Amino acid sequence: MENSEGALSQPLISIKTGQEAFTKDSRCTTFRLLDFWQWSMSDLLNNTSRGRLAEYIVATALGVSDKVRVEWDAYDLIAQNGSKIEIKSSAYIQSWHIGKLSSICFDIRPTVEWNIKTRKYEGEAKRRSDFYVFSLLHHRDKETVNPLDLDQWTFFILPTSVLDEKVPFQKKIALSSLKGLGPEECKYGQIKQVLDRLIVIDSKESLS
Asked: Which residues make Cβ contacts (< 8 Å) with residue 83, sequence separation at least 6?
């Protein structure tokens, strides 16, 4: 479908159940979308899958997991009050063998925004969220690590304004340096409560 300017409009994306079948010659095959998900996403310890899983985990904690993830958005989630949330993840255990625990580091680089309408990167490089939720899969035993176990995750929540003030141009941050910025550390069940409190504090500071 084209818009009034002759450009292709964004296709409508609907939530899938996993039971959708692949088709050939207008007939359903024996393999389904769920089969593809199992084939492509079962390794939850690789960086890509773990990152998306962390986004989903935080989305469920905030009660905003009812919408389809948008790949090119300038931020990962929008909280119920409209605050923009960026999710970053890291883990000690990786799916590839490295012989030792990984060093914990999070990506915090400012980015140029992708305009889905013009299909171009636009504007200055900056951090576009209101808050960061740094999601650490803290489990250190490769035999029992399970990204689906919410008790194996620790979360660090920090206003983006702190990063902009303290490390404005920095691209990555180690866990020790992140803790030095004073984030709120919490478990899964505390994410919404902590974020709601920080939103109130941030709003009061903006008005003062």
From this structure: 130, 131, 195, 199
Residue keyed to tokens 């255990």: 93
Q: Are 188 and 153 spatial neighbours (Cβ–Cβ below 8 Å)?
A: yes
Rounded mean pLDDT, 62-86? 91
User: For tokens 């899958």, what's the residue?
Assistant: 49
| Rg of the chain, C-alpha, whole Å | 19
Angle at 136 between CA 188 and CA 96, to 5 degrees: 130
For the stretch 132-149, pLDDT in tens is 999 999 999 999 999 999
Return the closest-CA partner of residue 45 out of 101, 99, 95: 95
> Alpha-carbon distance 125 to 134, whole Å?
20
d(CA 194, CA 184): 7
